[in-house]
Specification:
The chain is α/β, with parallel strands linked by helices. The chain is about 30% helix and about 15% strand. It has helices at about 1-10, 15-35, 40-55, 100-105, 195-200, 220-225, 245-255, 265-270, 285-300, 300-305, 320-335, 345-350; strands spanning about 55-60, 85, 95-100, 120-125, 145-150, 155, 160-165, 180-185, 205-210, 230-235, 260, 280, 315. Strand 3 (about 95-100), helix 4 (about 100-105) and strand 4 form a beta-alpha-beta unit. It starts with a helix and ends with a helix. The relative contact order is 0.14. Bound molecules: 2-acetamido-2-deoxy-beta-D-glucopyranose (NAG) (3 copies). One 2-acetamido-2-deoxy-beta-D-glucopyranose (NAG) binds next to loops.
């Protein structure tokens, strides 16, 4: 009503009765729209209190690999609905869910809660390591309610990376290329499929290797160094369904190089990335054929550039922070079935 007061007090204006009535009507109408809003905003404002009541209490039984990160500030699009996260075990009896990261609890059953589980509480099993590197899975038989892993049939799907739609379609600028094939490896196992494949490949094409006992590069320079190569060998250390790691998402795609993948079959990669965004070792009968194809692409820039076409619409997310995984868990917990158990984790996690 402030404008009216100002108007009537201002003696410079002679306000006739009809003008005043019209003005009053306008202000009255405006005020009501302001107060009650449209039907849509009225509904959403009524929903707010119940959403707050529905906040779930989520206990992190341990921090993954002991790394700490900020909780309770989930960024968009993971910010709604909400959870209260804590690492304080005194919340155990009140928590709606407890998240167990496999690495810290797998050494002994005594690492799990010794107090009986409160009724209705979900125990969530979180693990991003491959089955080969996940010992003592049978400890978890008949204990777990929800799984959280890179496997796409997990209750809470937490892959190493994904593609995001760009706000506006935009041609991707391929980083300047001066070298051909790069690979990074720290765990050299001569019996692994990837090392055996490399031993054959190197007879036909030169591969520059970074990592322990090889070329030295600091972590913060890795992406820049890799971006000057045309191809990157995204070779997984063990082969399991959906096990596609930062070797694809971060080292290859985020560096702006073309991934040559060794891992699960092509059909599994195609669930997550476009078929024309990568080269699969299985596409060729021998390592020599693959080498010949890479050398051919090196001489045909237009053909090479086809591997970047998808990037005008999509961009890779490859450096996923721990908190994002927990924020995803919050979203999933709000939709979780009222009852669920995993009788045998070891049978499923293969
Ligand atoms: C992207 O590049 C193509 C081919 O060079 C061109 O036809 C198209 O207009 C470009 N699009 C944008 C958004 O710049
Ligand atoms: C690799 O680089 C790091 C830091 O840049 C250094 O501490 C380390 O000694 C180097 N290792 C080798 C084998 O050169
Ligand atoms: C979780 O799993 C346990 C063990 O199988 C079971 O006793 C409990 O009722 C389950 N809770 C929910 C909420 O599904």
């Amino acid at each position: 009503m402030k404008p009216v007061t100002q108007f009537t007090l201002n003696h410079k204006y002679i306000i006739t009765f009809p003008t005043f009535a019209l003005l009053a009507l306008l202000i009255f109408t405006f005020n009501n729209i302001y107060k009650y809003g449209s039907l849509k905003s009225r509904c959403s404002s009524q929903l707010l209190p119940s959403q707050t009541e529905a906040d779930l209490i989520v206990l992190l039984w341990t921090w993954p690999f002991s790394s700490h990160f900020p909780l309770n500030q989930c960024p968009k699009p993971f910010n709604n609905p909400r959870c209260f996260f804590t690492d304080d075990r005194s919340w155990y009896l009140k928590a709606n869910a407890v998240i167990f990261h496999h690495r810290e609890v797998c050494s002994s059953k005594s690492q799990m809660p010794q107090i009986p589980r409160p009724e209705g509480q979900y125990w969530v099993w979180f693990n991003l390591e491959s089955p080969k590197h996940s010992p003592n899975l049978d400890f978890m038989d008949n204990l777990i309610n929800l799984t959280m892993s890179y496997k796409s049939d997990s209750d809470i799907f937490t892959p190493y990376g994904w593609l995001e739609k760009k706000d506006v379609s935009q041609n991707f600028t391929i980083p300047a290329k001066s070298k051909l094939v790069a690979w990074t490896i720290s765990n050299w196992d001569p019996t692994s499929k990837r090392v055996k494949f490399y031993m054959e490949l190197k007879n036909h094409i030169s591969v520059e290797i970074y990592g322990r006992e090889h070329r030295n590069v600091s972590k913060d320079k890795l992406n820049t160094v890799l971006s000057s190569y045309k191809f990157y060998l995204s070779f997984e250390n063990s082969i399991h369904t959906d096990y596609i790691t930062e070797k694809l998402w971060m080292n290859a795609l985020q560096s702006g190089t073309v991934p040559v993948v060794l891992g699960p079959p092509r059909s599994i990669y195609e669930k997550f990335i476009p078929s024309d965004s990568f080269i699969h070792v299985d596409d060729f009968p021998t390592a020599k054929d693959l080498a010949n194809y890479l050398l051919e692409l090196d001489k045909q820039p237009l053909k090479y550039e086809q591997y970047f076409k998808w990037r005008s619409r999509l961009q890779p997310v490859g450096k996923v922070k721990w908190e994002i995984y927990y924020c995803k868990a919050c979203l999933a917990l709000h939709k979780a079935p009222s009852y669920r158990t995993i009788p045998s984790l070891s049978k499923w996690y293969t």
